[in-house]
Fold each of these.
Amino acid sequence: MNRLLFSAVLIGFTLCMGINVSAQDAQQQSEAQQTLLPEIDPQDIEIRSQFQARFPGLRRQPILGFNPRPRVFQIDPNRTPFFEDEETVVANLPIGVLDRPEPPRYTPLGYSDPQNGFARIGVGSYLSPEADIYAVGRINDKNRISASLNHLSTDGHLEDFTDSFRNTELGLRSVHLVSEKTTVQTKLGVKSKFNHYPGMILQDGTPGDDNTRIEAYGAYGGFDVNVAQTSLSGVRVALDGFSNQFDLTSDRPQLEGDAIEWGINGLAEYSRLGSNIEEVHRLRLATSAGGFDPLSLESGSWSVTKATAHYERLFNYNTEVKAGAGFSGVTDAVNDFSLYPVANLTVTHNLFAGLDLKGHLSATPKHRNVGDIYSENRFIDFNSPMEHQYEWLGLAEIHIEPVSGTTFSGGVSYQNIKNYLYYSRNDNVLNEGAVVPPILTERYYGLNFENANIFKIYGSFSQDLKPDVIWIQADGAWQRPRLSNDEKIPFIESLNIKGTVAIRPFKQLVVEGWSEYVGSRDDSDGNSLSSFFMMGARFEVSLGERLGVYGKLVNLLDEEYELWQGYPERGFQGYIGITYLF
C-alpha cells in the first residue's frame, strides 16, 4: 500500500506542476507559409478527430506490422480512447496541402459537426452495456479541457461458472497555452475492472464451481512540457506515473490476496535545427522505474534508462532519414544490471509518385507493466516475477498507390527478443489428498520469459470502388514464432487474415461487414488449438443532425472458440444503441 500511496501522491504532484506542448512534426519553410494554413478552431479539430476515430466505415491507411496476437472481439478497437491536438493534425498534412486551397470537407452521414462532444451508448445481449462519451470545453482562449469515458461490461454467457466482467476508464486532459512557444498539457485517468477466474478443474476433468474474482483499480497522471524555439527545435520535459492494484477473492484461501504495481516515467529532450532542409539534431534522456509486489512472492523493482542522440533529415525532397543511437542500463527483479546498445534507423524513400519504400532497424530494451498484461490476458495468476526484454527488429516495407483510392502495402520483418514474455497454463493441485472439499487443480496462466524470434510476412489492400459509397480493405500476416528451443510460442497463431467491406447507399446510412480468420495455435503443452473464423456487421443511421442509431452483430456464425484455452468466448451477440452529438 505504501507504493500505491506513493504513486497517488506522485500523480497529484505532477498534475499540479503539469506543462506540455506538442510541437509540429513538419518543417516550417518560412513565416509566409504559415499564413497559408487554414484557420481552424483547435476545439473543432479535437472533437472531429475523436468522433471520426470511432465512426464505422472510417477508411484508414493499413497499419503494417500489426501484432497478430488475438486482439478483437473482447473490446471494440474503435472504442479505444486517444487524443489528438491541432498541432498534430497540421503536422500530418502533406506538404502540398499547404500551398493549395482546402478541398470541400466531407461530412459523415447526416450529422452536423459536434460542438462540445458526443456520446454513444448502447446495450448488447448477455446484458452487455457499453458507453463511449467524449467532451471538450474551452475555459478561455488559453485553456482547454477534455474528458472521455469508456465502459463495457457483461453479465456473462457461460452456464458452468460465473464469467461476468467490467472494463471502465475515465480520462481527463487539459491544455494551457503559456506563451506563443510554450503550452501546458496534463493528464489524469482512473481505471476500474473486474472479472471471474473459471479455472478450477476437478479430478474427473469437469469444471469446479469455486468462485474466484479479481478487482483491478488503476490511476495514472502526468505532464509534458515543450518549449518550442521553432516547429522542430526546443526543449521538452515530461514526467508521468501510474499505479495498479489487483485484489483477488476466492472460495479457496490459497488464491486470495492482492498484488500491487507502480511506475514512473521521465523524459528530457533537446532539439536544434541543422543547416539543411528538415535537418534536426536531438539529444534525449529517458528513464522508467517501478516495482511489482506479487500475490505470494517477494516484491521486485525494475528500471530502464536510455541516453540517445538522434539525427533527422530530408534528402532531395524524397528520402527521409531518421537515425538514433545510444546506450541503456536495465535492472529487474530477476536479472543483474545489464548495459545494452540502443539503435533506431528508419529510411523512407519515394521512388516515384505512388511508390514508397521503407526500411527500419532498431534495438531497444523495455519493461512491460502488469496492468497492460492483464488487459491482454485477464486470467493471469499475478504471481510471477517480472523481467525486462531486449529486442532487435528489422523490417522492409513497400507502399503502392497505382491509382487514386487503391493501395497495396506489404513487408517482411524479423524480431530477435531476449526474455520474450509468453503464457503457460498452471497445473497446481489444491487440497491434495483431501476428500472434503474435493481435490481441485488450478489452471490459471503464469508468465514465462525466454529468448524468442519471430519471422513475419504481411500485406494489405484497400480500394474505394466508388468514393464515399463503397470501399473495401483486407490485410493478413503469416509468421513463424519460435522460442529458443525451436518450439512454437504458445497461443500465437501463424496465420491471420481479416477484411472489411463498407457501403454507404445514401447519405444517412453506413453499413459495414467484417471477417477474420485466425489459424491454429499451440497451447503451453504443445497441443494444437483449433483455428476459428469470425464474421460481424454493424450499421449507423443518422435520424437528424445530432441524433443517430447504431447496431452491431458480433460472431454472426455463432462460432465456438477460445482466445485463451479453457475460457470459451461469447457466441452470437447483438448490440443496439444511440449516437448523440452536442
Amino acid sequence: METPASPGGRWLAFPRILWLSLAAALVLSLPMFLAGFVTDDYVYLGVLSGRPPPGPLPNTSYDLYRYVDGNPDTLQQLVTRGVYPWWTLPELRLAFWRPLSSALAVLDHRLFGMSPTGYQAHSILWYLAAVAVAGLLYRRLLPGLAAGLAVLLFALDDAHAVPVGWISNRNALVSAVPAMLGLWLHLEWRERGRVWAMPLSIVGLALGLGGGEGALGFFAYLGCYELLGHKGPLRQRLLALVPAVLLGLAYVVAYKSLGYGAFGSDFYIDPARQPGPWLANALTRVPALLSGLLLSLPSDMALSGPGFQVALGLAGLAGVVAVGLLVRAAWPGLEEQQRRHLRWLMAGAALSLLPVASTLPSNRLLLTPSLGGAAVVAVALTQLWRWRERAWQPRALAAGAAVLVLLHVVTAPYFWWETAAGFRAVSARGDRIHGVLTGELDSGRLAQQRVAVLAAPDPMVGMYTAARWWMGGGVLPRAWWTLSFSPEVHRATRTGPSTLELELERGRFLTTRGERLYRYADAPVAQGTDVDLQGVRVKVLEADAEGPRRLGVTFDAPLEDPSLVLLYWKEGALRRLQPPPTGGQVLLNVRMNVP
C-alpha cells in the first residue's frame, strides 16, 4: 500500500498497528457486555450450580459439552422426562471433548456466580490474546504493510463476534489461542533454530485441543508450512511433523475411545463415522463458508433455503477467483520468503475449513480459517493500492478495493453491534418467557404435575425454556414435554377425554434444522410410529415421503386433570391452554407474536 515513511504507512507499521488493532478489538467487543446468558449457557449454568438434574444428564462440570452420550438407555430416560423431544434418535450422540473450556467455565462460575459480566470480560481477554498472537505471526510472515493490514482485518472480522459474545462458544477462542501460539513456536524452532520452542509448540497445540476441536485447523497450517513453506529437504520436513502428527493421532484415538463424537444429527456429521454424508455436505458447506471468509458475507444465511445456499456458494467461489487473481498479480512483487509463507497460509486456511464443515455453515466457525484469510485479503488490498496509478483500469481496481474495504472494514462495527443486539434480544426473550411462566405455573403443585408444550414457535423456545427454568432453580415438574418445534400453523383437535390430534395446515413435522438436531433425515419417522413417554403417547397418524403431517397424542389422564399443564404460544410467551370440549379445535398460530 503506502511506503513506510508515508503517514498511512506509519499507521500500518508495527508495533503501532498492533496496539490499534487491540484497541479496535476491545471497542468492538464492549457491546457484548449486553449479551447476557443464552441457549446452551442455561444448561452449563444449571450443571455448574449443582441443580438437581431433570434426568441422568451426561454433562458434568468438567465435561460440559457432552450433551448426549449415545447410550440408548440413558437417552430414553431423558426423552421420557422431556429433556429431549419424543422423536430423538435412540442412538443419538452429541459429545465434544473440551476439558480446558469446561474447566474455565468452572472457574468463571466460582468467581462470578450467575452474573454474566465477568464471563463476558473473560471472553474478551481471550479475543485480545488471539489478536496479539495473530499479530506476532503476521509480522513474521508478511511484508510490513500487508502484515499491519492483516492484523487489523483479523481484529475487525465480525465472524469473531459470536465466539466473543456467546459464552458457550468461547471454546473457539480457548482452542485457537494456544494452538496459534503453538504454530508461532513451531516457526521459532524451524525458522530460527530455537530448539527449546519445539516442545513448547506441542504443549500449545495440546492445550488448544483441550479447548476444543477447532485446534485441529492449526495442524493443517502446520502441515502446510512444512510441505509448502519450509525450504529444507523433504525428509527433514517430514520428520519435523512427527511430534505434531503423533499428538494428533493420540488425540483422535482418545477422543473416540472416550465416547466423543457425533452421530444421528443433521447439525453435526462425523467424517470418520459418516464419510459419505460428510463429503456430500462439505461440497455445499465449504463454498458458503468461503463467502464469509473472503467476502465477509453471512454464511449463516445458507440455512434460510436452497436458494440462499446456492447464492452464497457461488459468491464464495467468485471470491476465491477474484482474490486469487489479485494475489497472483501481486506475486511478482513479493520476495521469495514472503511467497512461500503466503502459499502455506492460503493452503492452511483452505484445509482448516474441512473440520468445521462437519456442522452447519456459520461465520462463527471461521476463527481458525480467518488467520490465513486475513493475510490473503491484506495482500490483495495491498496490490490494488499499488496498481491505482499505473493500471489501465484504475477506476475498476479502485472499485474492487472499495468493495473489499466495505465488506471487511466499514460494515464490521455494524455486524459486531448486530450480533450483540441479537444475543441481548434472545436473552431478554428467555427472561420474559420465564417471567410469564412463573405466573402460569403453580410452584406448590408443579412437582406432581407434567407440563406439555403443544407447539413451540422455534427451536430456541422448544429446547431452552425448560433449561432456563431449571437453571433459575425453579421447581421441576415430573416431565416437561414439547410436542412440536414446527414453525407452521398447528390445528389441535380434541378427539376424546385424554386425546387430541396435532395437524399442520401445511408442511410436515420434523423437517426443520432445529427438529433434525435430534434425528437426521436418513432416519425418518414413519406412519404408525408410536412413542411411549410414560404419561403421554405420541403416534404418527399420517406421514408421507416428506415426513409426518398428523400426530395423535394420548395422555394418561383427562386433559383437565390437575396433573397436566398444557401450554401454547400466545402473545410472545408460553401460556396455559384451556382444553376445548371433545370435538373442539384450537388453532395454534406459532407464527403470531414471535418477537
Amino acid sequence: MSTLTVQALGAVAAAVERHLPTLVGDRVASRLFDRDATLWGEDAESEAAKRLSWVGLHRSSRPLVGEIEALREELRERGVSRIVLCGMGGSSLAPEVITGTAGVDLVVLDSSDPDMVRTALEDGLERTAVVVSSKSGSTLETDSQRRAFVHAFTEAGIDPTERVVVVTDPGSPLDEQSRADGYRVVNADPDVGGRYSALTAFGLVPSGLAGVDLGALLDDAEEVADLLAEDDEANPGLRLGAALAGTQPLRDKLLFTDAGSGIAGLADWAEQLIAESTGKQGTGVLPVVTPAGASPTAGLTTTDDCTVVVLAPEDQEEPTPVEGAESVVEVAGSLGAQLLLWEVATAVAGRLLGINPFDQPDVESAKQAAREIMEDGAGSADAAAVTDGAVEIRTGGGDWPAQDVDTLDGAVTALLEQLDPRTGYLAVMVYLDRVEHAGLADVQADLVQRTGRPVTFGWGPRFLHSTGQYHKGGPAQGVYLQVTGAPAQDLSVPGKDFTFGEFLAAQAAGDAAVLADHGRPILRLHLTDQEQGLAQLRSVLAR
C-alpha cells in the first residue's frame, strides 16, 4: 500500500497551520482534481484550462502499459538491448528518475554537446532503439538529435523506422511527419504540460521500453490520488504546497537533501517542476539540490531565506535532524505517489504565490535569442574582454566589474562581489558533456563555502528547461557563472547548415544575452582548450 508523509518543522510548520484552513475552505484540492481552471485567477484561466489532465493520469494512462510492453518485446526480438532517450526538460527528467529508481538502464541524451551526442551515437548502435520525445514537435535540440540517429542508422544499414519511436502531442509537426515517413508514434495527452508529464507517454514510453514495471508505478499514484483530492487538513499535497510557498516572509530557497529515500534523482526532477512553475513575475521558490553526502546548510552564513526539504525513506518514523535549519519539511512516499504529490503541491504553491504555474514565459525568450544568433552566424559572437590562459572572459548584466580585471581569478571574485549576502544565490551553468565532466559539479560545495550563499549547478542546455525560467522570471537575486568550451571534435547536424557545437554556443550566448537584458550579472567563461581550461577553472573556484 502506497503512503505519503509530509512533516513540517519550524517556520514551515507555522506556514502550514496558517494556510491550511483557507485551502480547505476554498476546496482547493477537490477543485484541482475536478480540473477547475479558475484556481489561479483570471489571467491564468485560459492556460490552466488545457493543462490539468495530469490529475487523472494514474487512470487515463493505463492503456499505454500494454502497448509499451508489446513494443518492448518487438524491439527485443530485433536485438535491441539499449534504449536512448532524446528529449528535454520534463521529457527527460521524469524517465531518468523512473528508470534510475527501478535500476534499469536508460541513456538520456538531453544535450547539444557534440562530444556527448557522438558518444550516444557510437556506443552500441546495432543494439539501440531511440525514443524521440517532444511535446511541441518542434524542439530544436530533439530534432537535431533525431536527425543524427536517423543518419547513423541509415549509414549502418539499419532501417530507422524500426529503431526510432516518436512521442509527441497529436497533430504536432513531428507527429504528422513521422507518421508520413513510417515511424512508430505514441501520442501523449495534449492537455498536460511538459513538466507535469511524468505519468504520460513522455514518462512511460522510454521507461517501459527500458524495462520498468509501469503498472506498479501507476498503482502507487492511484493509491494516493483520493487522499490528494480531499479537502482535509491532513492532505499531504496541501500541506507540502503551503510549506513550499506559504512562509512569511517567503523563504524562497528550498535546499533539497536526500536522506535515503531510495528514489534516484527525485530532487532534480522536482527542481525542474518547481523552478519553471513558480519562477515568474519577480517571485518564486528556487530549489537547490544539495550534493550527495553534504549537509544542506554546510557553509551557509544564514538560512533565514531557506527551507530544508528532506527526502526521507518511507519507513522512517522520526524526522531527520538538520543542523542549522530553522525551517524543515520532510517528505516520504513511493515514487509514483511522490510524482503526483509534488505536482499537486506545486499547483497549490502557484495559487499561494499568485502566479500561473503552467506557463513559462521566459523560456521562449532564450530560445528566440539563440535562433537570432544562429541566423547571424558564428562570426557575430562578441569579442572576449580578456583572455587568461585557456579561458576567454566576458561579462554582462549591469555596470560591473567596477574596475578592469585581467585574470580569471579577478573576474570570478568580481562576480561574487555582486552577491547579496542575505538573499542572493549563485547559479553555475555549464555547457559541456555532463557525463565526461560530471566531477566538475564538485565546485558547488566549494562555492557555497566561499560565498556563504546557496549555489545551484546546472548542465546546459538541460537547465534552460528548468531553473532557466526562474533565473529570468524570478526575483532579481542571482549572479550567474556560465562555462562553455570548444568541443574536442564538432559534429554536423544532418540536413542542416549548422553543427551541434554552433547550436550549443548559440544556446549559451542566447541565454546570457537575455540574462544581461534583465540586468542579471553574468560572467561568461569560454574554455578554448577544455582540459587546460578546466584545470584553471577548478583551481580558481576551489580556493
